[in-house]
Amino acid sequence: MTGDDRSTIGGDLPAARDDRPAMGDDDPTTRDDRSPTRDLRPDGGHSSVEEPGEDRSSTGTSAEDVLIEDEGGRELDRGPFQRWVDRSIEDPERVYRSMFYVATVFFLFTTLFPFYWLLMVALTPEGNQQDIILTPNGFNPGAFVEVFQVIPFHWYVFNSFVIAAASTAIVLVVASLAGYAFGRLDFPAKGPLMLLVLVISFFPPAAFFIPLNDLFNTSFVALEPITGDGTLYNTPGAMVLPLSAIFMPLAIFILTTFYAQIPDGLEDAARVEGTTRLGALFRVVVPLSAPGVATAGVLTFIAVYNEFFFSFLMTDGQVENWAPLLEGILGYQGQYEVMYHLMAASSIIGVIPVAILVIVAQEKIVSGLTAGGLKE
Amino acid sequence: MARVRLENVSKHFDDVTAVDDLSIEIEDGEFVSFVGPSGCGKSTTMETVAGLTKPSEGTVYIGDNEVTNLAPKDRGVSMVFQNIALFPHMDVFENISFGLRLRKYDDEEVQRRVERAAEIVQLEGMLDRMPNELSGGQQQRVAIARAIVRNPDVFLMDEPLANLDAKLRVTMRTELQRLHRELEQTIIYVTHDQAEAMTMSNRIAVLDKGELQQIAAPLVCYNEPANLFVAGFIGSPSMNLIEGELVEEGLRTKNFTVEFDPAGVPDVRVGDSVTIGVRPEDLHLATDADSLGPIACRIDATADVIEPMGDETFVYLLLAEDVERTMDRDEQSTPDQLLMSVDAVTDIEAGRDVEIVFDAPAVHLFDTESGEALVHGIEDLVTDEETGRPTSPEQ
Predict the structure, then answer these.
(1) Which of the residues A165, B18, B147, B226 could staple to B44 if both were Cys, CB 3.0 to 4.6 A apart?
(2) What are the sequence ranges of the domains in chain B?
(3) Is residue A117 part of a domain?
(4) pTM above 0.95, yes or no
(5) What range defines the domain where residue A160 resides?
(6) pLDDT by residue (tens digit) across A170-191?
(7) Rounded to whole angstroms, how far apart are CA atoms B161 and B140?
(8) Looking at A69, A91, A113, which one is the last position of a domain?
(9) Are A85 and A215 members of one domain?
(10) Residue B250: predicted pLDDT
(11) Interchain pair B98, A265: CB under 8 A
């Protein structure tokens, strides 16, 4: 709404409008008729709206004057809330701004408060863990060192990092090929196939677990040189393979939309200049879809890194058997006691690699998530 | 440098035939334009040469090698695209050297060749710019440099000037001609603009509906169009084409009769429908008749609309009263309307009755049914009014 619009609304008050056809604006009677209204009405838009309110709060007498003058007018005796409502009607931007702040505070609270509480739990010395509300019961920053002394927690983080990185690499390469086919080629049954890929991602992981666990505990001669006993259980493969497959469809979907938007001419140019189709994909299409690739990569990495089900069940929980971060956190849980402060400290440490990754890739992710539909 | 030969090439997309049994041979070092309206198959034809599209049938040869199933990168071709297609994430140097680097040329050679190519297209000092920092003309020059830097056998250009403004297009047109003279490479050029094709090419291949209509030197296409399509497409404004019927004394159309001996026209008989074609610049006011050859026809008309173009003036002539008027200069003429092009100094005004003439050499006759050209110039068939003998330009 512009200032002009607002003044038009004020000028269309019944008294003024009824008089206008009969008498010109120069006519003094018209002005007299309109004057009480005009005192109330904001002449110059938003800034002058605030003047009466400020007057009322600063000097009581002038506020009363205004109130007396208002008698018979349209607005009378407004409280702070009514004033706020009135101003919001004049300037709807205020409402959007307040809604934005309310939503922001709500989401910041729900996402950050658990971290705050984790930190409080971590800082509280062992044995004092009752009644932690907003402050720790004591101060024990040594917990962040102790986590590495009780068990080799850094190796658990390393295992998780390797599993997540390997899955991400596989997902990006395979999903790039699939995204190229779905996004840039024409072939029969393209739509149904894409749907099938997406449907797979709707399956609960538990549905795959029993057959996969059985499979990964089966010994294959071909695998013996690599894993020793020929099974995939207790190797990164037992997590990388199923997790790559489960998070693949989302990556395919993201990359398909991005690759489809790269103009055909660029790919043709690359092919005439000397690349194969595959070369054109990795030299031209992928670099130009960087935001999409970053988005798919980071989403996959976070999902694998945070995954519980397969990570918990595909190893025996020993760090030398590629047990991931999760097993490390659960490792502070003994038969007779649970070291909550160490679990809290290790949880915070475990978040750090992902947090760094997100901050580094943030710019690309944001443009990837929002610009997907509109990229040139 | 190499010859390019297409043999019976066809391309079908689902139920649409984009190219229909096309055979063309392009000589070494020749500049050939494929020209035709949108959807005539010219771009598809070029893509089959480049290898971006595989023909449904037929074979493609570059030099002495059959390349029908070869990948684009192995054909020794380079291409300039209509949408320029510079890689936006690479600077000018990287764009131009893309193909060289893929082929593992050593750095010194790459540097030397890129600088030479940049020099040819006058892009010195811009090698470190990104494509989005360049103007449209500069981008197009980068694309051309990228195409010439590899010294390809065949140089393909798919409407490279279509996205440039009119002034730049004329400049680039001359630059491309200069480039062709310097490089002496085989160039295949696709355009829908017949003026571009006329000015630059050694030969023009006119395509319509996926079929080759005529391939010949520009002036041959202009002076001796092989059929009605070429006659209407080549030349701006396009040729007046009026349908008529062959009668004993010549050709009778709705509003006038051209007198000649119909027996001298091959392949048609009296009673067949024949279309007469006369270019706007071959129509003259009767007052200028003395400077012409044997007059084939005199027509009474009314000047309807005058369009002064500066160097010449287009006059729309109405041959009958109360006719439906169409004003589109590029449309084929109606039987009741003719377009005449006269000198800018000619004294003519709208609404005036005029007598117009055209001479025998300017007449083209086409078989209406098949569209094929029958005769270009009927000076041998016209009987001189005084001597009663056939006239020819020498007499």
Answers:
(1) B18
(2) 4-232, 237-376
(3) no
(4) no
(5) 152-371
(6) 999 999 999 999 999 989 999 9
(7) 8
(8) A91
(9) no
(10) 85
(11) no
Contact B98 A273 (CB under 8 A): yes
- CB contacts of A274 in chain B (<8 Å) are 73, 98-99, 102-103, 150
Q: Three-state DSSP class for B247?
A: strand
What are the pLDDT digits (tens) for A296-340? 999 999 999 999 888 888 888 888 888 999 899 998 888 888 888
Instruction: State the pLDDT at residue A229.
Output: 82
The mean predicted confidence, pLDDT, of chain B is 86
Contact by Cβ (8 Å): B188, B221: no
Report the topology of domain B4-232.
Rossmann fold (3.40.50)
Categorize the per-residue pLDDT at B214 as very low, low, confident or very high, splitting at 50, 70 and 90: very high
- Flag if A269 and B87 touch (Cβ within 8 Å): yes
Q: Which residues of chain A have pLDDT under 50?
A: 1-73, 371-376
Same domain, A288 and A185: yes
Beta bridge pairs of residue B186: B154
**Is the domain defined by B237-376 classed in CATH 2.40.50.140?**
yes
Q: How far is A184 from chain B (nearest CA, A)?
A: 14
Cβ contact A266–B87 (<8 Å): yes
B142 touches chain A (CB under 8 A): no
pLDDT at A193: 94
Nearest Cβ partner for B81 among A265, A275, A287:
A265
DSSP B361-388: GG-EEEETTT-BEEEE--TTTPBPTTT-
Q: Is residue A70 part of a domain?
A: yes
**Residue A65, in any domain of the structure:** yes
**CB distance from B78 to chain A under 8 Å?**
yes
Domain check: are A263 and A364 in the same one? yes
From chain A residues 284-343, the ones with a CB under 8 A of any chain B CB are 284, 287-288
Q: How far is CA A97 from CA A4, A61, A91, in A?
A: 22, 33, 11
Chain B touched by A278 (CB under 8 Å): no
The pLDDT assigned to B258 comes to: 87
Quote the ipTM score: 0.80
Count of CB pairs separated by less than 8 Å, A with B: 60
Q: Are A268 and A274 in contact (CB under 8 A)?
A: no
Give me the torsion for CA of A287, A289, A295, A301, rounded to 10°: -40
**Are B210 and B180 within 8 A, CB to CB?**
no
Q: How many domains does chain A divide into?
A: 2
Query: Is A136 inside any structural domain?
Result: no
Domain boundary among A41, A69, A91: A91
